Request: fold
Amino acid sequence: MTAHRSTRRWVGLATAAALTATLAACAPGAQQGSGDATGATAEEIAAALQEESSITVWGWAPQLEPIVEAFEEKYPQIDVKLENVGTGNDHYTKLQNAIKAGTGAPDVAQVEYYALPQFALSDAFVDLTDFGAGELEDDYTASTWGSVAIGGGIYALPQDSGPMAMFYRADVFERHGIEVPTTWDEYIAAAEKIHAADPNAYITNDIGDAGFTTSMIWQAGGQPYRVDGENVTIDFADEGSTKWADTWNRLVQNDLVAPVPSWSDEWFQALGDGSIATLVIGAWMPANLESGAPDGAGEWRVAPMPSYDGSPAAAENGGGGDAVLQQSENKLVAYGFLEFLNGPEGAAIHAANGGFPSTLADLESDEFLGYESEYFGGQQINEVLVQAAKDVVPGWQYLPFQTYANSIFGDTVGQAYASKGDLNEGLAAWQEASTDYGNEQGFTVEND
Amino acid sequence: MTATSAPPVPATVRRDRPNWTGWAFVAPFMAVFALVLVAPVIYAIYLSLFREQLIGGTSFVGLANYAEALADPKFWDAFGRVLLFLVVQVPIMLGIALVAALAIDSGRLRLAAFFRISVFLPYAVPAVVATLMWGFMYGTRFGLVGNINDFLGLDLPAPLSANWVLASIGNIVTWEFVGYNMLIFYAALRVIPTDLYEAAALDGAGAFRIVRHIKIPAIRGAIVIAAIFSVIGSFQLFNEPNILKPLAPNAISTYYTPNMYAYNLSFAGQQFDYSAAVAIIMGLITVVIAYAVQLSGARKERTR
Reply:
């Protein structure tokens, strides 16, 4: 889950040695078999949980450990082996390799929403509809449920969510006499004011980030990706995408955003000393701010993210859930664990450990909403963040090969950032490269 | 010649016996060699003849992956970059290493042992750690470069910007490997018989003349070896750019070096087959160039 992306700085340290090793581990044609999902009733699952067995879980969310402990306490017959094989891409790579090899995959795996379609499509994950997951729809926010319900199936249960909001430094705003912006025009005006007063200070940092860009286009009402089975449309010339690119061009081309990569040491220092004044980012950010930028304590606040016309609109940024693998030989117990992990019991532990939930019951509980964050100067931050979850613009879809598309963001849109060119052109290059890849992979990709 | 001229049978039998004894001795090595070196290469070649799609499964495509790679501008872009790196960085690195080795060998240096170990020390730092460290120092806001700018009022170019990042990587690699190459040269210098120096001194040769006409010709073999290692190292450039990528995602593309391209093809794009073809082509090019370096080194030695 994106809340722990900071660890990605250490990711990707695997060397060419790993390349050879893994190349040798993946035979062509060893694709996991057909989707002969074996359904089960609630009674069968309950019975399986009382028998002695074990399951393996892959994930990196720090909340997994206390949840697994609580699960083993409740079901002492089940031994859960929790393994952290890496964060984000490292994790997906290992998962993909195990799926390809036909053996060695865990029973349950953590997966971010953007990466889910890729695994769902290749039949690597179990369609949880057969286990009765369809009945759980009303427990979760619409946007997170929409992320796990893919092509008529349910391929994961949501764990956390990341509705976007604007985190800002109240002290910096006050010093420069800036009102909290509600539209992007006001945001840009604030950016100019801050940077003009102090050339080392910026409204935010941005050197190009695929997750941020897609979320921003999502908020602008863009739907650049439309997926219908094997037919995919990629269109970054649609109204929402253009609206975002035109707006963001004004920030990038005028040097109004700090050229600092997110999650770097520089970034956390700047968040601590206020030379980065705002972050438009997922609701999982507060815990990262507290641990990464302790110097900023008391100065940060949160407000709804600005919109184009001033009326509330938000998008999801990061977040993910957990899935059962087709390879699992203990699917009943795996699903039983999933229900615990992503159900009320797990969600409560998750929220108590700094996670931002996707379950309506937790989002609407008085305790959660009334929480006063000391770091945020006593502000009831969850009021704002939960409202953002409700304001998420519906209808967004990710590509069935989003992890690849994100990996080439720097080669395409990143070039427009680096040269301070037109982001629309960068998006067009991204569209072209993604289209080529999709067609090579056997999809029918069109650009409207 | 006709079939009647076949060699006599007994001779063949007698020749065979000692052969088998030899093989028995090298068998353990051959088994390991086949398992860890030959098998992966054969498997990569096998992989490279297929194409797997997310939709549609795996199909045999013959040499199509190779044809695609040879016409792939990204591959040649990556290749051109490591070639430039090779042509610029390797001579600088070997030059510094040679000067350091000669200085230590000259015996005119105080604290030679300390000097030797401190030049060699960076080699003991894992490449990953070294790159993370340099990546931090390269920061223009809070890193060393930022501090220098602040302190001296300079405006140094950002080491991680698109125009400078290759030079910055070259700096890291040089820092890492000067000590290693110095040690190779120094070891070669130590085996030169000292009476040659005495004879040269009696003939009136100065220190620089001894270096030019005795020391450098005597360690030519070591220089060729170091050059071959460096050629291979340059073509395999991966760790440094891959670790710096999160700090400079727009300056370091996913196809910055051939190895990074192969890595990203397989792990981000699931194109294992195409990636294997790219890796094999790059391996062949490396072999050819390393061999050419060796040949040219050997030829000069003969003509001398």
Summary: Chain B touches chain A through 52 residues (CB under 8 Å). The mean pLDDT of chain B is 88.
